[in-house]
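To close the chapter, one final illustration. This time we ask the reader to focus less on the individual chains and more on the assembly as a whole: which components sit near each other, and how the overall shape emerges from the parts.
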Amino acid sequence: MKAIGQLILKEFKLELRRKAVVSGLALYLFSTVFISYLAFALRQNLITPLVWSALFWITILFTAINTIAKSFIGEKRGLDIYFYSIASPVEVLLSKIIYNFLLCLLLSLTGYLLFVLFLNDPIQDKLTFVVTLILASGGFASSLTLLSGIASKASNSNILMAVLSFPVIISILLIVIRITKNCMDGLDPSVSYDKLLSLLAINALVAAVSYLLFPFTWKS
Amino acid sequence: MKSNWWKILSIILLVYSIIGGLLFAVPRLNIVNETIRALYFHVPMWFGMVVLFLASTIYAIKYLRNPNFQNDTYSVEFANVGLVFGLLGIFTGMIWANYTWGSPWHGDPKQNGAAIALLVYLAYFILRGSVNNEEQRARLSAVYNIFAFVAMVPLIFIIPRMTSSMHPGSGGNPGFNMYDLDSKMRMVFYPAVIGWILLGVWITSLRIRMRIAEEKIIESENENA
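The assembled structure is written out below.
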């Protein structure tokens, strides 16, 4: 437990030292939102709630993939061996998942604010929507972290990361888009409970499988 | 001969299901009409695919517990043949959809789910192609195989049941049980499912033998060189 805390702390420190990476991600998010704004909202107002939700989740998906991809792909050679010598693989994985979860959550909340600023705000049930953002970030973090570990070992990591993650992430994305629709229609939160529960169940499933499988991607 | 009985059984069941599937009487229903016979050929593909992918995942787990060339080969070849079954399932479904829904690709949740399931396994082969170290390739692809299978389960079995679909058997559309109150269709359907699964396993076992033989040839060439 203590090791996990230390490792998360280390990720934060590292992130603050390499400010270019985080600012790069923020700029990536901003540019994507701005392109959506220029293409869809400027002059001709094409943003219906459904288009909004599609654009929003595509933006968040790509940002999440890019954010989490760097958790193993960007690391220097040999650094992993050092981590292995001081912590167990499971601790490394859990710390990365938690850290990626926080980063994803931060970016998706920022993404939401940017969407409200540049496009509009069709979300009526804000509380359920924020809960959805939290669960979606958790799902992205727990599934993509393992895939980043796999992709980092292969030759064309960046393409592979996208190819491996899309099919896996789609089940999360489909449920999330459906909940977003409910939130936009201002339905009572209780309508979305079963969907939120299945989202939570998928998260738990994916996290459990990552936890079991991750030690195998390490040995080499 | 003793160990080949299931191959003969597979051929008998398939011949029976093709003859029976094309000639036996089927219930008359609006719109569906004679296309109901697609059930005998389309649905067994999905049963076959799920069984083959499951076998592939089981061998992936076996590989992680006991890393050797054999388990890896089994896992890959089951995935290969499963992919072929999946593609056949999609194509037979598209033929059926063309006559009953009016267009081959109708954007139905089941069609989309199936397409995504195939994407998962295509990604699996891309992953295998991009790792050079043989042992690492086997290990990483085994990990992805298990992970993908788990992620695919909600896609194929849960989400299509949550949404309305025009596919028979969901969203208030009549399924298997409504079509044949007298269970006549089952007489052909179940043998067809078993026959196709056996055929899938048979093809896989041939491919595995081929790969192992190839590996031996390469090894002996290396020794001689």
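Residues 38-183 of chain B form one domain. The first helix of chain B runs from residue 5 to 23. With these observations in hand, you are ready for the problems at the end of the chapter.
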